[in-house]
Design goal:
The protein has helices at 2-17, 21-26, 43-51, 58-68, 78-85, 91-105, 132-138, 177-192, 208-217, 231-235, 250-259, 261-270, 300-307, 311-323, 334-369, 379-395, 399-415, and strands spanning 117-127, 140-142, 148-159, 164-171, 197-201, 220-225, 241-247, 272-282, 286-292, 374-377, 417-420. It contains 17 helices and 11 strands. The protein has 444 residues and is α+β, with helices and mostly antiparallel strands. The strands form 2 sheets. Strands 1, 2, 3, 4, 5, 6, 7, 8 and 9 form a 9-stranded mixed sheet that branches. It starts with a helix and ends in a 24-residue tail after the last strand. Strand 5, helix 9 and strand 6 (220-225) form a beta-alpha-beta unit. The longest helix has 36 residues, at 334-369. It has 2 domains: 2-91 and 331-420, no CATH class; 110-315, Transposase Inhibitor Protein From Tn5, Chain A, domain 1 (Alpha-Beta Complex).
């Protein structure tokens, strides 16, 4: 049943890509004439080409697309392709992504933790083409040679159990992670509706103002504290798990007063924030604490174990950057950055939707065989297999043929499994490798 739902979701996405309604979203504000004429590469074909891109040169991407579309006699120049890309609103991929995810969360497939969807929020620095336009739009930082290069802040909202990026943002290099997090929170209800959600954050998100914002937004949170955060309250705890009153002192609101006087006055009037603090141990002899608004019915040990799931978003940043070539942008214009980042977020979600379906079957087969370890799908190979078929899947109109292609793709994914071994805790080691690593070769 789940595999049929996955195929149905892709069918709905395909219909949206070629719908007349999407053309309005695809137009840049003020340009009502784009995507109206019949071209060699109309909007639907342009979107398919971008989603199926393999980080090749623009000329090779165009060539690959027309070969897969069986239109070798019909092509467009690189210049025309890039000119049309400049008329494409990046918002179109954001809309397609949210519609795709909404189709998923409306079903009963979603995995929950104690009734909550568990979402991790985190930011990361990303490389973007070092053009003057990008340096002005996203800012710049110094590289190892002391030269100013374009960099951007990338922020994500990731479902750690269902393996989807619900929302991503590309921001200025100096932007605040907390403000980026607020943008993600605004997007949640558009995708998951009224389902209870629990957001996990690392230590960079700790602040009275941000916690207050989360409470007002009606979401549960779990944040790791720095050792210096709310030290008076932590030291005054009589046990390792207590509800405490975080005092809104002038010192704690000092930075906020410089940024937002109205919010500072509001919090000063409130006086304190009630929160639950759980003392925990992280790694080797590293004591710390977690702050949350989860009820006491959920034990401290369960909360400590749950926080470890935050690492999933870090692993998926590795997937985006190193397995999906996320930072390999089509061109130097800032509009290509947003188009490619949002398009690859959608491809990530489609791929992991299929991986989840294929993995269920692979796990069942492994249990029947009595294998020693649990298994999972080899993510790198699965991404390569999906990239190989992506354009053909989007272009295929015959439902029977499309069904056969999907089942063949998932069968190929099922064949490529790796054992899941519990890794032992160890001190972090920094290893230095050659440029081409033997165990991290790209799949496309």
């Amino acid at each position: 049943m789940a595999d049929w739902e996955g195929i149905k979701r892709f069918g709905k996405l395909q219909a949206r890509i070629y719908s007349e309604k999407l053309k309005g979203t695809a137009r840049i504000a003020g340009d009502e004439s784009s995507w109206t004429r019949k071209r060699d590469m109309p909007l639907g074909d342009m979107l398919a080409c971008i989603l199926g891109r393999k980080a090749l040169s623009a000329t090779m991407e165009i060539r690959q697309y027309f070969q897969m579309a069986d239109k070798v006699e019909q092509t467009v120049s690189k210049q025309d392709y890039l000119k049309q890309r400049r008329k494409l609103n990046p918002e179109v991929f954001k809309v397609l992504n949210r519609e795709y995810l909404r189709d998923y969360y409306e079903t009963d497939e979603a995995k929950l933790w104690n009734g909550y969807l568990v979402l991790a929020v985190d930011g990361s620095r990303v490389e973007i083409p070092n053009s003057e336009e990008n340096r002005k739009t996203y800012g710049e930082s110094e590289n190892q040679y002391g030269k100013a290069v374009a960099r951007a802040n990338f922020s994500g909202l990731y479902d750690v159990y269902n393996r989807f990026f619900l929302d991503i943002g590309i921001h200025h290099f100096t932007s605040s992670e907390k403000e980026e997090g607020k943008e993600h929170i605004k997007a949640i209800r558009q995708i998951v509706g009224n389902r209870p959600v629990l957001l996990i954050f690392d230590r960079n998100y700790v602040s009275l103002e941000f916690i207050n914002y989360l409470e007002k937004a009606g979401v549960n949170y779990l944040i790791r504290l720095h050792k210096r955060n709310y030290k008076a309250e932590v030291d005054g705890m009589g046990s390792r798990d207590e509800w405490v009153e975080l005092q809104h002192t002038k010192n704690r609101l000092r930075n906020l007063k410089e940024e937002a006087l109205k919010r500072a006055a509001e919090l000063e009037l409130q006086g304190s924030t009630r929160a639950r603090i759980v003392k925990a141990r992280f790694g080797f002899d590293e004591d710390g604490a977690l702050i949350t608004n989860l009820p006491k019915s959920i034990g401290a040990e369960a909360i400590r174990r749950l926080y470890r799931k935050r690492w999933e978003i870090e692993k998926k940043y590795h997937t985006l950057k190193n397995k999906m070539k996320f930072e390999s942008v089509t061109g130097k214009a800032s509009i290509y950055v947003e188009q490619d980042f949002w398009a690859q977020a959608l491809v990530f979600n489609m791929t992991h939707d299929l991986i989840t379906i294929a993995e269920r079957k692979a796990v069942k087969r492994a249990k029947k065989k009595g294998l020693r370890y649990e298994v999972r799908i080899n993510e790198n190979i699965a991404i390569g297999l999906f990239k190989e078929q992506c354009i053909r899947l989007i272009l295929e109109e015959d439902n029977v043929k499309k069904d056969v292609m999907f089942r063949g793709l998932m069968a190929d994914m099922e064949k490529n499994i790796v054992p899941v071994r519990e890794s032992k805790s160890a001190h972090r080691k920094w290893n230095y490798f050659n440029k081409y690593k033997c165990n991290q070769k790209p799949s496309f």
